[in-house]
Amino acid sequence: MRSARTLRQVQVAVTVQRSLHHQHPPARSAGIVGAPFSKGQVRARGQAPRALVRCAVKDYGNLTFEDMSRDEPLGLLKSVRAVGAANQKLSQAVRAVKEDGHTAVVLGGDHSLAIGSIHGHSAAVGELSVVWVDAHADINTPLTTCTGNIHGQPVSYLLHELRSKVPVLPNFSWLKPCVSAADVVFIGLRDVDPAEHYILKMLGVKTFSMSEVDQLGVARVMEETCDYLSARGKKPIHLSYDIDAIDPSVAPATGTPVVGGLTYREGVYITEHLCQTGLLSAVDLVEVNPLRGQTEEDVRSTVSTAIDLLLGCFGRVREGNHLPDYRLPKP
Predict the structure, then answer these.
(1) Which of 102, 119, 151, 238 is catalytic?
(2) Position 204 pLDDT exceeds 90
């Protein structure tokens, strides 16, 4: 059943490549890196790149990660060495994609991978704006986490302002913070730990919880997001999109679903709006986990939603597209 399910996902995902080659205006060049790594989250499985890896203009393939059999917890923290090593490898891969001139697309895997993805992006292009679309803030530090799962901590590793709050960890010596808190916007929050709430308020991070999305509407949220970021300069945008930002009625095949999320239309609108800025430079699409789907329809709905999010990032609009040189046939 599982192998058949994966085959069908790949067959669906092939349509993305065809769509990316038929955008108007033409889609920017995309470089896909598959990162089937999920040790930042307990009991997760790195299956999603198998389902989505065909959606590249240039496919850099799936990274392979060392299996660290002796990676004992460090206090409460789980799989620290594996997460550190995997993100270093991913950082190098994303940097290479950007230096080749492509928009980087990272398919996870869990959200701990944003550490390496954003670090590699910054190493290639300099200062970034980050739009973090997620049900969760993922800004716990190693000392405030309740679970020890690093997929709930990546933002704290990346922020200059929290450098003194993150202890020295094995296999993380390569990492230096690369993002300022004022250059980050969160969208879709609805499950935030008390320590995370304190950190967000302490740093004055721009956030749009689901309450703000409900109150303002997603169009106003995106207008305010882009106005806020552009006021600090037109920096390349890194979109880090956790599929659990979407309501589980639409995208249930994920590790930590939370009810009350973005609708399909709201989720796609976010990607369309960011694409239209001309500044979207890298995309993470993470936490798609086919093994967490209870039915074939759960998996199909989650994967197809993820594909549509990616297509929105590369210029597909719901009003339709046509090639620039298209002409009506003559009788």
Answers:
(1) 151
(2) yes
**What per-residue confidence (pLDDT) applies to 216?**
98
How far is it, in rounded angstroms, from Cα 77 to Cα 167?
11
Does the annotation count 244 as an active-site position? yes
Tell me, what CATH number does 86's domain have?
3.40.800.10
Q: Model confidence over 6-65: pLDDT tens digits?
A: 333 333 343 344 444 444 444 467 888 988 877 655 444 444 444 443 444 688 989 999
Let me know if 111 is a catalytic residue.
yes
Q: At what angle do helices 114-125 and 80-99 cross, to 10 degrees?
A: 30
pLDDT digit string (tens) for 33-50? 988 877 655 444 444 444
Q: Is residue 284 part of a domain?
A: yes
The domain containing residue 121 runs over which residues? 29-314
Tell whether 14 is covered by a domain: no
Judged on CB neighbours under 10 Å (0-12, 13-18, 19+), 74 is middle
How much is the pTM? 0.89
Which residue of the set 193, 247, 287, 308 is catalytic? Answer: 287
- The answer to whether residue 191 is catalytic is no
Is 78 a domain residue? yes
What's the number of domains the chain is made of?
Answer: 1
Q: Pick the catalytic residue: 111, 119, 121, 238?
A: 111
The pLDDT > 70 percentage for the chain reads: 86
Check 110, 134, 196, 284 and give the catalytic one: 134
State the Cα–Cα distance between residues 289 and 150, nearest whole angstrom: 17
Q: Is 287 a catalytic residue?
A: yes
Average pLDDT over residues 273-285: 97
Q: Is 138 an annotated catalytic residue?
A: yes
CB 183 within 8 A of CB 126: no
Name the nearest CA neighbour of 27 among 63, 55, 51. Answer: 55
What's the rounded Cα separation, in Å, for the pair 77 and 19?
41
Within-domain flag for 226? yes
pLDDT at 15: 39
319 in active site: no
Burial of 189 (0-12, 13-18, 19+ CB in 10 A): buried
Q: How many CB atoms lie within 10 A of CB 2?
A: 11
